Amino acid sequence: MEFYKYHSLGNDFILLDAMDSPVRLSPGDIRMLCDRHLGIGSDGVIVIEPSQRADCRMVNYNPDASEAGVSGNGLRCLAKHLHEKRSFRGTRLRVETPSGIREITLHAAMGRLTSIEVNMGKPDFRRSSIPMKGEGEEAVDYPLEVAGRRLVVTCLSMGSPHCVLFLEEADRQLVREIGPALENHPLFPLRVNVEFAQVLNMSEMRLRSWERGAGETLASAAGAAAAVAAALRTGRCKRMVHVQLPGGLMEVEVTPDGEVLTRGPARRVFRGELDEDWRERSRIILA
Predict the structure, then answer these.
(1) Is 113 helix (H, G, I), strand (E, B) or coil?
(2) Cis link prior to 131 (omega < 30° from 0)?
(3) Which of 85, 123, 203, 273 is the most exposed place for a label (fewest CB within 10 A)?
(4) Are 31 and 63 in contact (CB under 8 A)?
């Protein structure tokens, strides 16, 4: 079985093209493929499938085999693949996801993709859409005690659940300490992605992301979209923000009608072939 390895700002994915023939993966298959020691290694697995509603359908899995929902960086990698390997030469692409249709705009110069824009949709601050337990319709600048710390969080859905913290500084140790505690907090029945944001000024932000089912990643487009949407809602930024992630710089824009656009690159790292008996050999190794 052929596979491809892509990344967007270091957020890396194994991509399986099932446009011509179906791909069936068990949870054990996904966990093994994403394992950075015993498998290929990645932040997730993307399967591209045919769609009757759009140009294609994206199914995205976390390393723990749970379904990830919408991934902006994953959509960028998918668009890069279709452009390079399936000779897609249009500038607009529509992709079906579990959270609805997402529109992608490809920016090219001299025949090469320079940037890929993903419309992440509109943020939804309602608790019921996240979902998040508790009183009140929303949780904006909401006090919450986690791991012995008193925090103030803003929670929302970008097609996937997010909990945003605005901090003076977000170092790696804090992310690793607070991230898993918030991800699995009982207020979030489906778990939650955690965004650690440091607002530098009205148009610049630093961000670290702890993703449910994956841990800390080098970049999260959905996380950047959530952080900017939360910052705009609470008066911390303008509509156009440059977000510095550990993997690089992403541009995030909130349109006048409230949709969040993320812009960044995507790169193919390599392609490979899984042996016919890869499942059996992985069981022996992991036993």
Answers:
(1) strand
(2) yes
(3) 273
(4) yes
How far apart are the C-alpha atoms of 117 and 119, rounded to whole Å?
7
Cβ burial 205-227 (10 Å sphere, 16+ → b, else e): bbbbbbbbbbbbbbbbbbbbbbb
Over the stretch 60-107, which tens digit does the pLDDT of each residue have? 999 999 998 789 999 999 999 998 887 677 789 999 998 899 999 999
Residue pair 2/271 in contact by the 8 Å Cβ criterion? yes
What count of Cα atoms within 13 Å lies in the side-chain half-sphere of residue 11? 35
Give the global pTM: 0.92
Backbone phi, then psi, for 203, in 5-degree steps? -130, 10
For 28-43, write each residue's pLDDT tens digit: 999 999 999 989 999 9
pLDDT value of position 281:
65
Query: Per CATH, is 2-120+266-286 categorized as 3.10.310.10?
Result: yes
Beta bridge partners of 263: 117, 251
The DSSP code sequence of 144-201 is: EEETTEEEEEEEEESSSEEEEEE-S---HHHHHHHHHHHHT-TT-TT--EEEEEEEEE
Residues of the chain with pLDDT under 50: 284, 286-287
What pLDDT score does 110 carry?
Answer: 78
Q: Where are the domains of the chain?
A: 2-120+266-286, 127-258
- Predicted local confidence at residue 195, as pLDDT: 98
